[in-house]
Design goal:
single chain; about 350 residues; alpha/beta; Aminopeptidase; 2 domains; six-stranded mixed sheet; three-stranded mixed sheet; 9 helices; about 40% helix; about 10% strand
Length: about 350
């Protein structure tokens, strides 16, 4: 009887050891698949951190990413990396039946069409509708808002907490400032200075080489300029958002495609009530001049809200700080730079317009 129990214990230990080894092998295979297909750059950093936060909740408070403006669904991202789109059953069937792979056609934005079997569609000529976000008769710039430039008195500070955020057709993140969000900031700077006489400091410091420290580092940058120049009339943290299909973040203004934009606000700070009216005015001006150019959020407005945000997104440093997100990684650089022209006009209306 003792020998039987000993053998049973040995078998149980061997089974547990085998299960442990099998789990490790499967985990390594999954991570290898994910690393090849998705887990790269900033998005990978966010997902890895999200997984750690989910597994070890105490870390969430320590790394300030719990309320980053980027939002990832762990289950959805893992399934996407494995080629499974839970909103499109064809993606699952296609893995087993080759015929359906042909039905999953790319829509030009890097994602397959939801229904690739070409269901019946009405001809557009049979439908009379207003085209949302189309304002072909509206001029972006306004020469009457131009004043004499005073380069010795900078009025606007532009910086980027996530400096490497980039656009299609390239990688989602790039240190090449001719391809990333810095290039959009360059256009905004030119618009403000050349067309409206507004002096600008455009800082292109790389803040997100360690993603979870992005806002800590950009905070140091903003504080440096505040110490040197005093307050600015406007401080802009310019971003590119991620993870949304292109149609929902693209509009047409003056015959040109633009990346829709929105504001991000941290609410739980002492100067919220002084800062919020600035955002409200810019939103009102945008909707008046360029209806459809702004991106509506799940709250029904044009602001993505956070109670705190990472380091309050630096909005506690001045009443004049705003964070603007435009488009996603599926928008082109041209579309984002067209949006910069619109934002330039909004800033000119705010700073140079008649009060």
């Amino acid at each position: 009887m003792i020998e039987f129990k000993t053998n049973a214990n040995k078998m149980l230990k061997l089974k547990l050891l085998g299960l442990f080894l099998l789990t490790i092998i499967l985990s390594l295979m999954l991570l290898n698949s994910l690393s090849d297909k998705m887990i790269k750059g900033t998005k990978g950093n966010i997902l890895y951190t999200s997984i750690l936060n989910y597994s070890i909740p105490i870390l969430t408070q320590g790394n300030n990413i719990g309320e980053s403006e980027h939002r990832l669904n762990i289950k959805e991202e893992v399934l996407n990396a494995l080629g499974i789109n839970i909103s499109n059953p064809l993606s699952i069937i296609a893995k087993e039946i080759p015929f359906f792979k042909e039905a999953l056609k790319d829509n030009g934005g890097g994602k397959p069409e939801l229904n690739g079997l070409n269901p019946f569609k009405l001809n557009e000529t049979n439908i009379v509708k207003d085209e949302e976000g189309s304002n072909g008769s509206i001029e972006v710039s306004d020469a009457s808002l131009k004043k004499t430039l005073n380069p010795n008195k900078p009025e606007v500070l532009i910086y980027h907490s996530h400096t490497t955020e980039s656009f299609a057709p390239g990688d989602a993140n790039s240190k090449d400032n001719s391809k990333n969000i810095v290039a959009v900031g360059d256009v905004l700077t030119s618009e403000l200075q050349d067309k409206y006489g507004i002096s600008v400091i455009h800082d292109n410091t790389l803040h997100n080489d360690m993603y979870t420290l992005s806002y800590k580092r950009s905070r140091e940058t903003v504080q440096k300029y505040l110490n040197k120049y005093g307050n600015f009339k406007l401080i802009i943290d310019l971003h590119r958002d991620s993870g949304v299909n292109k149609d929902s973040v693209t509009a047409t203004v003056n015959g040109e495609k633009v990346a829709r934009f929105m504001f991000v606000i941290s609410k739980d700070r002492s100067n919220y009530s002084k800062n919020k009216p600035l955002v409200d005015r810019m939103i009102a001006t945008a909707n008046k001049l360029y209806p459809g150019a702004m991106r509506q959020t799940k709250w029904g407005d044009y602001i993505w809200w956070y109670n705190h945000g990472s380091y309050h997104f630096n909005q506690d440093l001045s009443d004049n700080v705003v964070l603007i997100e435009m488009g996603t990684e599926m928008n082109t650089l041209d579309e984002a730079q067209n949006t910069a022209k619109i934002i330039g006009r909004l800033i000119a209306e705010e700073l140079n317009g008649k009060k």
